[in-house]
Amino acid sequence: MSGAPRVAIGLNAVIVAVTDEVPRILTVLPRTGEPGDPAVEALPFGPLDPQHDRTLDRGLRRWVHEQTGLALGYVEQLYTFGDRDRAPRAQRRGLREVSVAYLALVRETSVDDAARWRGWYEFFPWEDWRSGRPGLIDQAIAPALDAWIGGASETLVRQERRERTDIVFGLHGAPWDGERVLERYELLYEAYLVPEAWRDRDDLSGLPEDARPAPPVPRPEPLPGRPMAADHRRILATALGRLRGKLKYRPVIFELLPSAFTLLQAQKVVEALAGVPLHKQNFRRLVETGGLVEGTGKLDSQTGGRPAELFVFRRDVLRERPAPGVGLPHVRR
Predict the structure, then answer these.
(1) How many CA atoms lie within 13 Å of 146's alpha carbon, on the beta-carbon side?
(2) Residue 270's closest CA among 327, 332, 333?
(3) Long-range CB contacts (< 8 A, 24+ apart) of 56-63?
(4) At the topology level of CATH, where does 249-320 sit?
(5) Given pLDDT bands bounded at 50, 70 and 90, which one contains residue 69?
(6) Which among 27, 76, 291, 321 would be 20 to 30 A from 123, CA to CA?
(7) Where are the alpha helices (DSSP H) in the chain?
């Protein structure tokens, strides 16, 4: 069909490590001509080479190694992002960009100068509840969303916005659900409270006004949180929500730990990813009685206190149980 947009397939990698109790991701600075503002960091990405990349997985590993110098181990497909407006600059060129995103779990190592490790909560500061409910929610997010809700002219729209806001941000008595990371980011994007929303609207400036989303008036101040190129912060939010969910039924944390570790180290990794504090004794009981780990009989004398026993992941549990996750045992409030 004449004038139909061309489709390009890209590959994105959310590469996660936990270092010193901080969940970290690997970012790169896009080169000129690639998605987003070159001054804004991106996830490692690149187009699929249909002639040379025999599989998507191999294409992803190639791009990551070329851009960061990192050789990936554990990788799983995360999601396919293909919304028409996800890459407005490409859309103006008549190109529909579809990106297949992957989640990779690694231990942090040195990378090339073009890449850098960033704290996960630099991008989503409202997601870290380890020290209690973030003040940002009540001091900035809730008032900004209240203004957005009140800006709707129709009663039903205001009611729908209020319900979504309360549910995803745990307001007015609603519980906080750590897995709703993407829903929270998308709500803030819709309310024009993140820089990406304004940038994407500007990038659609060639379209008729009625084809562009209407921003709130007056223009709200963007919330704290590091922006990313294209829709990469949306991809990152998807990965964080997926990883938090997988804690309950897959032993993914052991990909992020050294081969031998203390139970406290394991707990801190879970807390870093989940963004909530856990009950120490309940966590120890769950991983030990659940057969997830076994003791080595050796002690770690570098704990800064009483030496703690070192454990290893017991791989036989993968055959014994269909869902050998660590869960979130009795979150400590």
Answers:
(1) 9
(2) 327
(3) 56/11, 56/100, 57/102, 59/11, 60/11, 60/13, 60/100, 60/102, 63/11, 63/13
(4) Arc Repressor Mutant, subunit A (1.10.10)
(5) very high
(6) 76
(7) 56-68, 88-92, 135-136, 142-150, 155-169, 181-190, 195-203, 232-246, 263-274, 280-289, 317-320
Rg (alpha carbons) of the chain, rounded to whole number: 22
| 326 and 292 Cβ atoms separated by less than 8 Å | yes
With H, G, I as helix, E, B as strand and everything else as coil, classify residue 71: coil
What CATH class is the domain 6-121?
alpha beta
- pLDDT band, residue 50 (cuts 50/70/90): confident
Check if the beta carbon of residue 130 is closer than 8 Å to that of residue 277: yes
Q: Is 56 exposed, middle or buried (0-12, 13-18, 19+ CB in 10 A)?
A: middle
CA dihedral angle for residue 20, residue 24, residue 29, residue 33, rounded to 10 degrees: 170
Residue 182: phi and psi, rounded to 5, are -65, -40
Question: What confidence tens digit (pLDDT) does each residue in 314-332 have?
Answer: 989 888 877 777 766 556 5
Which amino acid makes up residue 264? Answer: L
Instruction: Look at the block and give the residue holding tokens 């009663």.
Output: 155
Residue in the block written with tokens 């390009």: 8
Q: Cβ distance 184 to 126 under 8 Å? A: yes
Enumerate the domain spans of the chain.
6-121, 127-225, 249-320
* 245 neighbors 229 (Cβ within 8 angstroms): no
3 state SS of 296? strand
**Which of helix, strand or coil describes residue 116?**
strand
- Confidence (pTM): 0.89
